[in-house]
Amino acid sequence: MESFNLLRRRTTELFNSMPAVPSMPSMPSMPSLGSRGSSGMKGTWEKLDIPPLPRSSHSADIVAGTVYIFGGEIEPRRPVDNDMHAITLPSSGAQADYYAIKAKPVKSSTPAAKLAVPTVNEPKPESASESESDEDEEDDEDDDDDEDSEEEDSDEDSDDDKELSEVPLTTPSPGPNASASANAKGKGKSISPPELPDVPAPRVGHATAVIGHRIFLFGGRGGPDMAPLDEGGRVWVFDTRTQLWSFLDPSPAAAGLPDIPRPAPRSYHAAVATSKPDTFAHPSRPNSQPHTKVEAWRDWALGTSAEAEHTHGTPQRPVVGVLAERATDPDADGYGTLIIHGGCLAEGSGPARAADVWAFDVRSRVWQRFPDAPGAGRGGAALALGGTAGGRLYRFGGFDGEAQAGGQLDFLELGVDTFDDQVSGGEEAVLCPRGRAGWKSLLFFGNEDVGYKEVDAATRPLHARRHGDADPADAAWPGNRSVASLEAVSVGGGREYLVLMFGEREASGAGHAAAGRFWDDVWAFQVPSEGMSLASVADTAFSVVGRRNGEGSWTRVETAPHDDEDDASAEGPGSRGWVASATMGALEENGIVVFGGLNEGNQRLGDGWIFRLG
């Protein structure tokens, strides 16, 4: 019966989508998604059919159509295991699937035991054995004389005589005397990293982000005292292809220099990631201006390039194995940048909450501090990265220890510095903020929405109290909140939106022992369109005729079930906070997966939902 209902649902969707195919390229239909007319914006909910996995303060990431869930808690201040829970999203009629992945390292950091090689002794003649016995006695005396000198040289030769199997492949930790010797010489202070396992320990309040096929994890709270974990700035890496854990420790400073700054241990912070920088010069590239792809292909096809014929051969006489020999894995050398912000710091380390922003360059393994975000330090802020190239870093909400933050959307322009020596063709150096202004903010001024003084009667924002106590149906700006979901999604044509969902509107007076009040609304913020895109052309056309395009404004999204016959999705997820979310990416550009969280009954939720904008 279930298969029949699924077939009928797919058939209905197919017939309903047929009349809409000819109107898809139409330009006027695209901006209607972001218009603030009476109809508003639409969104749908679909509940995932999976076993319950209750938890809060966890993380969720999507890679190649699979959701990876890590950490969290079921009971307050008691982290769950360090397994990676994977959920395959439904696609092409296939249902969702769930499985757990045990935490395993790529390779143990402890040296492998040396294999014993058996020795074979051949029998010798008696005459030869008698003569050799005398020589052995003389050799023993010589060995006794040289024993002391050999012991002195043994330390120097031990490193050279090590076999490859004895050398650990993970980042080595300096000995206990490393910092002491540096301080004794007066050449700077060196921070000795703590001894850590090869896989991340169970934790809550950590932050993760995706670069390529790998999930990067930083921080969190755990251990017997449930304090922020001090891991010396280490970033944990989970490879979704091998399903193994590795780690990246910050690069040490050069001899005689102070240690490179790194973020303090923290929990309940936010993280995003970008694939930039991802263009690097290769040592194997010749010191000459590289050919374009068209020239290289023509020379190879016609056999007119001696270099191409020598390395790759010709179509008639190809050189087998050259491409495989020179193939490289971008993840092996590393690329991209992990960005973290805010969070709760350890007691006695200064302010209770942070406002700093740090960027970790994966290739160089160096932490770089960006300008601090405006306002007081906070935990539970929502962070998103929108746009192309370096992108724009957005922040909303958070809890500063006294009240929920809101009333403004902060953003920081990012870019990539490029080094071009006219030989290697250009190399992207590092991600960095653009301009000297630093962070900027879009503020909410009551009836004036982000500086718009003249508002159409059909879209006139009503009064909304600044601290987020107003009815979300009567508000023109999202209420103040923390531990919410903020994701950047695309709806095609270069149009991008920030989607804000759920979050805590009023904190509990009992801390983690009780639950506060939560939001159940969904908001969309129209991001400025990229240049030379269909969305930018439509925005320009509307500005010429004097019509607003909705850029830089919030719109409350009206939600409904994705399938009218799906009873499980009829009521939607309901109000909650402390959730984990991730965009579906190439699988569905306008889709977001929300998993778990905490409701007002102080119950950890174990359900998963797919939200689709539009």
From TrEMBL:
- Low complexity: compositionally biased ranges: 176-185
Q: Which residues cross the membrane?
A: none
Q: Where is the composition biased (Acidic residues)?
A: 129-163
The GO biological-process annotations, alphabetized, read as: glucosinolate metabolic process
- Tell me which UniProt keywords the record has, alphabetically: Iron, Repeat
Give positions of region: Disordered.
18-41, 107-202, 550-577
Q: Identify this protein by name.
A: Kelch domain-containing protein
